[in-house]
Design a protein that fits this description.
Helices cover 81% and strands 0% of the residues.
């Protein structure tokens, strides 16, 4: 029936988006393997560090947003949806900005505590700190972008989400090629942050006009 078809179409859009986004890290590691020895290791551990603040912020914010927006249409006297989204942007922005600043400011001690032992080569620590900092620069954009992703999903605008996922894949590869030539593995991390910021801006820019 029509509902089942619409559901499968929406699901397929989300699957394409997730596959495209999930492929970014694979592409990053492949390109890092073209660089000097140890680059893949640095990228891998930098990404693991980056996932710590990402996990904390997403566990705190997005389940609440999804739960609230899922019941939004049933609320009497509700605010315009754009106002609901905007009300969540400010706290998310300041919290993620604070986490970003703290992470970059204390990147040295945090990296040492996390990896200055065991099998991780100590000689890689300075470059790991820089690569991690380049990842963290995209933290605010990541959080803001994901707010809009949840908003698009609440509006069932999954086709645009699919398009952004595919664009992110190609944009990430192109930025990697440009920046890794000058910054090495840190350039790949910076490319991820720039890519995240561009996609977040496009999600904001093309948010359905009737909701702005």
């Amino acid at each position: 029936n029509n509902e089942a078809t619409a559901f499968l179409r929406s699901l397929s859009h989300q699957v394409v988006c997730l596959v495209a986004l999930g492929s970014n890290m694979i592409v990053d590691k492949i390109m890092a393997s073209w660089l000097k020895s140890g680059s893949v290791t640095i990228l891998h551990y930098s990404d693991r560090l980056y996932m710590i603040p990402i996990s904390i912020l997403t566990a705190w914010f997005f389940p609440v947003a999804l739960s609230y927006w899922s019941h939004y249409q049933q609320q009497p006297g509700r605010l315009p949806f754009s106002e609901v989204v905007k009300s969540m942007l400010r706290p998310a922005f300041f919290v993620s900005l604070a986490v970003c600043i703290i992470s970059i400011w204390f990147r040295g001690p945090l990296a040492c505590i996390s990896f200055a032992r065991g099998e991780f080569p100590i000689a890689y620590l300075p470059e790991l700190e820089l690569t991690w900092a380049c990842y963290v620069l995209g933290l605010v954009a990541y959080v803001i972008g994901n707010i809009f992703v949840q908003a698009y999903l609440a509006l069932k605008e999954t086709r645009f989400i699919r398009n952004m996922g595919v664009l992110s894949f190609f944009l990430n590869a192109a930025l990697n090629l440009m920046l890794m030539r000058f910054m090495g593995v840190s350039g790949i991390a910076l490319a991820t942050s720039i890519n995240t910021a561009i996609i977040a801006f496009l999600l904001f820019k093309h948010f359905p006009k009737q909701q702005l």
